[in-house]
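Sequence in, structure out.
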Amino acid sequence: MNRFVSLLFLVFLSAFFQSGILAQVPTVPKLIWKVNRLDIGTVLEEQGLQTAEFEFTHTQDSLFFIQDVWLECGCTTVEYTKDTLSVGESGKIKVSFDPTSAAGFFSKLIVVKGNLSGVQDSLYLEGISIPYPSDVRRAYPEIKGPLGFRLKKINMGDVFDNEPKIKYVEFFNLGDDLLDKGAFRAETPPYIQISQVQQFVRPQERGLLMIRYDSKLKNDLGFFEDNIPVKWEGVAGSTVELEIIADLFEYFAPISKAELNEVPQLFIAQKQIDLREISSKTVVRRSVTVTNQGRSLLEIRKIQGNCECLQIEAPKTSLAPGESMELTLILDPIGRKGIDQRNIYIFSNDPVNPVQLIVMKSRIE
């Protein structure tokens, strides 16, 4: 009896391990898509239908064909490969989007159903659609030469040094001349590139400028503003200056929970400093203690204030584990009056809190 039970147990155990091994074998998708999410960028309403293509490869031994494609709304139409595909062969899904159907960010779902079991893949077409304005002067109040812009400055937002950031900026051609992409010129620093998107922008039409900001080439941190002259050769009075602002940050990859105690950790003893009432004729000094509470060397990459009236003195640029230092903050309020707030940003290699803020408040009499 015991022998029978042991044999039965061994059979069960063998079956269990075999099922476990099979469960660990990853399933190969029947279709491999080059991408399943496409961003077509900024689209102007008057540009008409926008098309994008999704490409796939069939990976199974069985013959494959697309049975149907389901669309989220009537704003998209689709064409797709009708042929029957063998293993290794490729196909395409061509999606057309009508930008008059959306305003702002859009994400349209496309579901592809195949003849093989389990083939029901989801694709996404994304972008930003900008409707044509009913009042041009009101929509583009910032006039620079023959161009109208929505805002005075172009804000790139947060830009990290692991990859360049791209932004599309619309403008309205208020002039009488054709703006040719080939004639566009921009005097940019190495870390900024500007190009015209459309080949031609006719008078009383809208165009797009593509701005590419590479923070790694800038090799700095904090807030920056660049004034970039652009023009179209052969077009009189077309020289304008673009004001581009950006906040530059160092990128840190996510860390595991086990690594939290091993990385540098910046601790600021006092993040809020209230000077209360001060005289505009008196220079004020305060000190703040910063400590490395981690187990690795802390490097202070940069300390930046938001005013030339503020000076920051740091005796060191690195702190060993457990080490502290005093930051000296010097505020010269001459010429200022009323409620005042100064921000001090500390950039470090603390991967959890790489940028920390000290706020200094006062009422200047």
